[in-house]
Amino acid sequence: MPSPIPITRLLPKDLGLEFGACSSPVSSSASGSTLRVPPNRFHGKIAHRLWSSVINWRELQALEPIGSGGFGTVFRGTYLGKTVAVKKVKCVKNKLASRQSFWAELNAAHLHHQNIVRVIAASTCTPAHLSSKDNIGTIVMEFAGTLNLQQVIYGLADPLPTDRCLRYSADIARALQHLHAHHVVHLDLKPANVLLSEQGVCKIADFGCSFKLSSSNDTETHLSEIGGTFTHRAPELLKGEEVSPRVDVYSFGITMWQLLTREAPYEGDRQCILYAVVAYNLRPCTNRSVFTRSPLGRTCQKLISRCWDGDPGIRPTADQLLDELSVLM
C-alpha cells in the first residue's frame, strides 16, 4: 500500500529533481516554512529509494508492545525477516502537534549513522485490521534494544565508570555531529531518548520534536511552540530566540552531567526552575566529587560548563565536542 508521505522526507535534497510546493509544519527554507516535493515520475536511483516510503504490511509480524509515550506506542516485531521497532503515532487532543510529531520523526529518515536509530519505512496509511481511529502514521525502525540511558543511569545498580560515561558521551556527540552537518536539530536530547544497543553503542532516537533548519545562513528560525523536556531545554528556546544546533549541545551538557553524577538535574517546581535557568543562570551542581577528585573530573566539569553556557556562542560545536572527548578517552 503506497504512502502519501512526501518523498523528500526520506530522500536527500541533492538529486536534481523538479519540485512543487506542499505545506509542512516542520521544515523551513529561505523562502518560508514549506516542504518541497517532487512530481510523480521516478526512475533509477530515486525509484530504488522509494521503498523507504512504503511499508509492506504482509511482512510486518509479531508486534509486541515495548514502550509508550505522549504521541504513540513502540512495538517490537519482525519485518522482512529482521527484528525491528515499530512506532505508531497516535492523535492526541492537540491534533496539529500529533501530526507535527509524526513528520518530525522523519527529519532524519534519510540519514544512516551508527549512532542514530535508522528509519526503515514509514506510512500514513494503515490496513484496517491494524488501524485505530486515533492512528496518524506508522514508522518502522531498526531495533536498537530496549534499554535507554535513563534506565542505565537511574535504574541499574551496576557501577558506571568514567571511561564508560565518556564513551557513551562520544557516541552521542558523533550522532549530533552527523545531524548538525545535515541541518537537523534534535531539540529533545536527554538520557531517555538515547538507546543502548546490546553491543554497548548509544543511538539517538525519538525525533518527534526535531527540526530541519534551512541550509541558508541568511535565514533565522524561531519556534512558535517549544517542545522537548524542560530540564534539558536551552535558555534561548525559553526566550523565543533563534534555534541553532547549539541548543542540542546545551542538552548534551545536562545529559553528560547526569551520566557522571547519576543524579537528577533539578528538584522543585517546574516554572521556578525554568525562570531560574533564564534569569539566574541556574544549572545542575558541579561540586560533586566526580568533578573534584581528579584532573579528568575537573576537565569534564569545564567541558560541561561550556556546553550549557547561557551564551550559545561559547558552547562548542558538535565537531569541537567530539575532538575534546576523544582527547579525554
From TrEMBL:
<dbReference type="GO" id="GO:0005524">
    <property type="term" value="F:ATP binding"/>
</dbReference>
<dbReference type="InterPro" id="IPR011009">
    <property type="entry name" value="Kinase-like_dom_sf"/>
</dbReference>
<dbReference type="InterPro" id="IPR017441">
    <property type="entry name" value="Protein_kinase_ATP_BS"/>
</dbReference>
<feature type="binding site">
    <location>
        <position position="88"/>
    </location>
    <ligand>
        <name>ATP</name>
    </ligand>
</feature>
<keyword id="KW-0547">Nucleotide-binding</keyword>
<dbReference type="InterPro" id="IPR008271">
    <property type="entry name" value="Ser/Thr_kinase_AS"/>
</dbReference>
<dbReference type="InterPro" id="IPR051681">
    <property type="entry name" value="Ser/Thr_Kinases-Pseudokinases"/>
</dbReference>
<keyword id="KW-0067">ATP-binding</keyword>
<feature type="domain" description="Protein kinase">
    <location>
        <begin position="60"/>
        <end position="328"/>
    </location>
</feature>
<keyword id="KW-0418">Kinase</keyword>
<dbReference type="GO" id="GO:0004674">
    <property type="term" value="F:protein serine/threonine kinase activity"/>
</dbReference>
<comment type="similarity">
    <text>Belongs to the protein kinase superfamily.</text>
</comment>
<dbReference type="Pfam" id="PF00069">
    <property type="entry name" value="Pkinase"/>
</dbReference>
<dbReference type="InterPro" id="IPR000719">
    <property type="entry name" value="Prot_kinase_dom"/>
</dbReference>
<keyword id="KW-0808">Transferase</keyword>
<protein>
    <recommendedName>
        <fullName>non-specific serine/threonine protein kinase</fullName>
        <ecNumber>2.7.11.1</ecNumber>
    </recommendedName>
</protein>
<keyword id="KW-0723">Serine/threonine-protein kinase</keyword>
